[in-house]
Amino acid sequence: MITWSTLTFDEKREALARPAMKDSASLKATVSQILAEVQSHGDAAVIRYTQQFDCPSLTSLRLSNERLHELAEQVADDVKRAIQIAFNNVKQFHEAQKPADIRLTTTPGVTCEQRFTALDTVGLYIPGGSAPLPSTVLMLGVPASVAGCRRKILCTPPNQNGEIASEIAFAARLCDIDEVYLCGGAQAIAAMAFGTESVSKTDKIFGPGNSFVTEAKQQVSQRADGAAIDMPAGPSEVLVIADDNANADFVAADLLSQAEHGPDSQAILVSPSSSLITAVQQAVEAQLATLSRNHIAAKAMENARYILTDTISDAIAVSNVYAPEHLIVQVGNARSYLPAIQNAGSVFLGAWSPESAGDYASGTNHVLPTYGYARNYSSLGLLDFMRRFTVQELSKEGISNLGPAIMTLAQAEGLDAHKQAVAVRLNALAQECDQ
Amino acid sequence: MITWSTLTFDEKREALARPAMKDSASLKATVSQILAEVQSHGDAAVIRYTQQFDCPSLTSLRLSNERLHELAEQVADDVKRAIQIAFNNVKQFHEAQKPADIRLTTTPGVTCEQRFTALDTVGLYIPGGSAPLPSTVLMLGVPASVAGCRRKILCTPPNQNGEIASEIAFAARLCDIDEVYLCGGAQAIAAMAFGTESVSKTDKIFGPGNSFVTEAKQQVSQRADGAAIDMPAGPSEVLVIADDNANADFVAADLLSQAEHGPDSQAILVSPSSSLITAVQQAVEAQLATLSRNHIAAKAMENARYILTDTISDAIAVSNVYAPEHLIVQVGNARSYLPAIQNAGSVFLGAWSPESAGDYASGTNHVLPTYGYARNYSSLGLLDFMRRFTVQELSKEGISNLGPAIMTLAQAEGLDAHKQAVAVRLNALAQECDQ
Lengths: 435, 435
Prior knowledge:
Chain A is an alpha/beta fold. Chain A is built from 16 helices and 15 strands.
């Protein structure tokens, strides 16, 4: 237990430090090589890597829609229902995010507009691994679908049999995703960034992944011939603020929810109550033993931090500095503290709002800025699947009204042709009047 | 004049190719070194570089507010009026972009919110050079001010006398920018990304610049200890679609407005009228001679392209592939083509809407995606100075309704602790009911 008020400035910084991310030259070089191979050899390179890492017998990247449909049908009914419930909530919440176009007359005869339009082609990456992640399919596929992206391409690594989990297939079909490709890792990101014979080049790539995927996303986002990406990535994290009234079992379960994601997950409890902190520490020990992924969670909890502050306001100040991906506020009248919260990806208010609600089914998106990026990046939302552009239309009256100011400014900036573009028009109008 | 319909696929691609951007290892290394120096030595390093490149006598980075005020007062009255007119229009249009928070009940007892909040500290970069750029101060400063960013930091290189142009000072004061630092180039970007004794670390850096500035922005945006940036940058460009009714002088002036920005600027005319194209080519020659920056504009116009299409629709298809930063549509009933326009940073409709209107004063932002990024990046707007985050609050009813689905999904994904975080709450509720 760390007593915040006794720390020096440097100790405070240390207490909230995140683990350094590996800046591995060999990872960069490996990924760069994979990108170059895929760019040069297209499908052949992607298939070769997929055979090497995922499925030795793979010969075609595309999962047929027929097979996608068959797989989707195999999902157990209760899981289907649960995915459908999550889908409904995520869809409602993202539909509510639809932006309105703006049209405004700034000066008589001068109309300005801001318009929103869906990105044309988006790439959705779903990691493989020991368990399927249908929830991530929903978190990417629903906003892409609601935005109205013309093409939605999903890449996910196949299993040894060249197939994907039925839950992934079911969620993909709910989101109207009908292009599923059997590839993962940096090669999948390369395929979606550059395009291959099978996989369309995409405008933007979304989704979580391992260090190869993350590095590949960074690299393609830096290239003009690549693709935009959703946001930078880092280890996942939760910060819980709790007071004396909090239920220690609830808090412990929330910390462990985060911890089981991976050994580098960060779990932080900040509380003005030392008795609550002690109770949570005991509850964590008790619950840890019951988890199937307890080796992962235990490893992450070695780096958990329990910070004792003087007040709840101090705890919020700590959170604002840390800028957590998930912030759970289990204090009396939690909502009253919302205006004071500055930097967080997603906020969970009150005792009955576990992180797993947002991870799965409340309706909010679970793709969130990690690693302190909550101070300058947004949680994923509908707007990330759209583009804004502007339109202006000046009438003769408009250019007459605004032209002189434009010419003065162009002259001040030494840009003759900018001035001339107005002058030729004002001259033409003057001639019209003379006639 | 290129006749579009006679081109092969590869020739079409070639006709719309942008100049390759230098991927210079020495530029990267130089910038990387400057970033490291500023990160290690703070103000001392920034002052040293500024003495070397801009002002040998500089000893302090901060331009005092008193001096800022004095400089602002020196602006000629007609320029003050013109800047004020532009400011008013830009402010109106960006105020109209204020987003509304969202609050929604997705399932009884489950409330989800999307909230918008201003970025805390933003860094605005204004290039130096032969002429001052007060318009760019407005395009960055107005949205930062309208968004409500707590701190707005402006960096611009000083002249030989350690001062800045009075027009910059005047525009900065209109935008309520009260922290102006006398530094430019990669060292200014480093100062705003990492912070120094004088310059606060910023959350996001905005603004155009030379190749050092662009490279520095890219590098700091890739670092977790750096800052986010507005968008990737490339040479500026315009594509004009014009028909037989268009005024060749207007079109020529618009092409030249773009061309005078720099020798790498791109100017493209696409038209179904060969007579219009010929007339524009002649008008360009005539107008070129009158420009003070004619050597720059002439160099850019060497790479100008004149593309003849069969129809206006074909011209729009060409534009959609090219994805221009600025798209000027000088055809009869220009607005009717707006729904067909897919990828453009800002659209100028009709004969009376020159690019310079948007560059200066219509109200739209002149910071726009270049180099084809209009297909996946937005034009700069108020939302770029804000963050979205989500909030969820479940009541007892909410967790009772949604908990079973969350548990099913957590189980399907093999995440016990996520399931447990719901189970402990449902158990607690069951016990409450039993009592």
